[in-house]
Amino acid sequence: MPLLQIPEISQRVAEISQQYYGDHTLDAISGAGKIERPKLALIFINPTHRNISTNPDWNGLKAPWIGCANIWQLFADAGLIGKAMNQAIQDARTNWSEQFAVDVYSHVADQGLYITNIVKWAGLDAKLPEFEKIRLYAPLLLEELRMARPKRIIAFGQLTFDGVLRELGVKPPETFGALNELTLQTNSVHIIQTELGEIVPCYFPVGQGIKNRAKAVEILHITQNL
Considering the entire predicted model, what is its pTM? Predict the structure, then answer.
C-alpha cells in the first residue's frame, strides 16, 4: 500500500485519543493523501460518524470522508478530483471496500491533495466539537502541517479557520464571513500569510453548511487559478 498517512501523526492521534477518549465507541481519524508538499491541504473540523472507517471493525485506511459520497461530489465539481474516480465513489455510495479506500486516497495523493481535520475525534452525531477538543487537537494539526508542508491550506468553516489561526497566534484582518464574501465579490482569494504558509478560508459546504455549497465550489475554483 502506498504511504498515504504520516506515521508519526497517526501514532500521536491514536495516543491522544486513547488517553482522553479511550472509552469512545468510534475510532479517531488521521489525515491522508499526498504527505509530502501537497499543493493543497484541505482542513475540516472533525470526522463524521457517517465515515465508515470510524467503525472499530474497519481494518483498513482510517481517513476523512470514507463512505461519504456528497463531499466527493463537491471535490469533483471544484475540479479537485477526476470525474471517473468521483463516478466510482458515487456508484459505491457507502459500500466502500478497504481496497477502494486506498484507491481513492491514492488518487487524492496523485492530485496533490492532503485531507485532514483539526479535531481527530469522531462525534456520534452532527454536533460540532466542543472548544476543549479543538484546543486539544490543534497543536497536533500544526505539527501535521509542518511535516506535510502544503503549498496552500484551505480551512473549511469558521471553527476550523478560527482554531488554526488562534493556535498560530494570528489575527485575521477581517471576519471569516467577510473574507469569503470578499473573495466571491472580487474573484480574488484573500490569503492569510502564516508560518505554515498561505491559509485560505472557505465556507463549510456540507451538513449544516450545505446552503454555502455553491459558494465553496466557487472559492475552490478561484483558489486553484491563483
Answer: 0.97
